[in-house]
Write a structure and sequence with these properties.
single chain, mainly alpha, 5 helices
């Protein structure tokens, strides 16, 4: 299913892109200091293959709702649009503060 079709379906738009996928794209864009979508795509694919092997890779792609490189490019495009609109935006997790006590 094309990204445009997913947006127009009854599914909640925010559920189309997972936090993990956005974090991975952000991590690769910042690590390699690039906004080129095809460069980021290459880095994301290489990082996924490095982190996960075999069925683990398939599992994580499924969890991130990524079926193809086209899906990754769509996620990259959304990330780049959001960063252009608000350069301070981040999808990285902030460390939890330790409770006093």
């Amino acid at each position: 299913m094309r990204f445009e079709d997913k947006i127009l379906s009854d599914e909640n738009f925010s559920s189309l892109i997972t936090d993990g996928a956005m974090r991975l794209v952000e991590e690769m864009a910042k690590k390699h200091n690039t906004k080129d979508r095809h460069e980021i795509l290459g880095y994301v694919c290489a990082e996924m293959e490095r982190r996960y092997s075999g069925s683990s890779l398939e599992y994580h792609l499924d969890q991130m709702k990524i079926e193809s490189t086209g899906d990754i490019l769509d996620i990259i495009d959304v990330y780049l649009i959001l960063v252009a609109a608000d350069p301070s935006i981040t999808f990285m997790r902030t460390p939890r503060k330790k409770k006093a006590g």
